[in-house]
């Protein structure tokens, strides 16, 4: 039993020895100095800087900064360095400050800019702002471009936003919309419209000169100073929204515009907008609404007492419809341009007066027309870049294409007062033209004229020249018809000459077929007539050959009478008004003067009886005294005539019955 106790005791001693050895090894350096120090021979850690707050180097110091507040050590001596600048709690496990709200920086040494400048600026310390944006030097002295050095305790603690140009406010959240056109401003760089001379500095740091350069800045008197104040001193500024709340009777983004100007002075302007800047490039009057374009409100309304003069409204299309109630619109200089891209008329001119008698559209030029020289245009119309038509100052109208169509009542009238220009000229200029140069159409079935030509030689008294009826019949009232060349062809209907007859100067009259029929008054041939074929028929009136005689080229002269009267002549020959001889319808021939001269051949066959020859004396055509007078100077003595009959020729020399009857006048 004793041996058993000794064995257990030995085992316990062995285990105790092992535990002692283990503890000796762990006690060399605590936590191996946490990785932030060295383990020394005395089993102590030599910690790295800022990690010596714990023996095992596990805790880190936090940064220090000028204390925002602490107890003073002497008169006006305070703000010693303090952990986290007394504006935060240190997290020793990391060595980082957890700053209170509104403070930032590794040691909470800076005041945080409000809202981090709202994304419209940068946060700078007081020292930085002084160096970069402080005044360079005193006025009139050249500087080096660097501002003053600020060394007070808060030089790196106090911070402020430097807003982007066009923004202002502690947090740069308020836009500047009215001052930027006269120089950009922000929350730190600003003035009230008339900055002091001390606000201007001069940087000569980059000037190289052997002399000592200086810079002089002096005040000058300005008469057009514009005041720069919040809301124009006519309202309250809401710095939370950046908007002005204007006082009564003022309006505008910066309250600089009167909203109502009651004025009882009769010779004062009621309201004047007068930008005074010589380089002004803004908008004198800007009308703007947050509401979209509608036809239920007006941008402007002008009234004279109770009479509306002018209204401007925007309709649902947003085209800025302008209505002038009375007085019209006059543009003195600059003209007017009307344009839009809608499928509607660009210009509509109308008049609602039921008794209107003036001009709907009047185009007036002070300059007189230059016609017939090159003239200016009153109207010049084009489609795209292609001319359509133009109207010159003289009234001359040129239509490029499309022609002129007059549709409806009224037709067209052309008046020409020129002495040598054509009143109407129609030209088909195409070299391959195949249509009608002039086409006249009518649709009426009533009698009317297609063309009627008149001349007013006496004012107000028209003289008809010719007409062309709707049947095509052409009536020439004055002047006749003159065909210079080419002749005239009548296919059907013939040629009717009412009065004055027909005169052919040369070439004669050639009737190819059908002959010529003269119903009355006969045919008067001045210088001969030749009928080649078909003959000549005179139905009534006879035919008179004044000169040249009548020549029958082929055949004999045949006289046929169809008259039912018993007394008329086939031939009645006269010299002037003196009868020469006649051939009666019975064949009886009477020789009034000159006698009868026959060749002997006519007596080759004498009459069978002498009594027949003597019978010529039984019934003389004239009284005896006249008959005897014919014998006063006979061509042959009577005895000679009887002797001709007494001598009987041979049978082959006897006259024929026809010759005998002609000789005896029966």
From TrEMBL:
Pfam families: EGF_2. Keywords: Disulfide bond, EGF-like domain, Signal. Transmembrane segments: none annotated. Residues 1-27 form the signal peptide. InterPro entries: Dev_Signal_Modulators, EGF, EGF_extracell. Disulfide bonds join 99-108. Residues 76-109 form the EGF-like domain. PANTHER family: EGF-LIKE-DOMAIN, MULTIPLE 7, EGF-LIKE-DOMAIN, MULTIPLE 7, 8. This is EGF-like domain-containing protein. It comes from Phytophthora kernoviae.
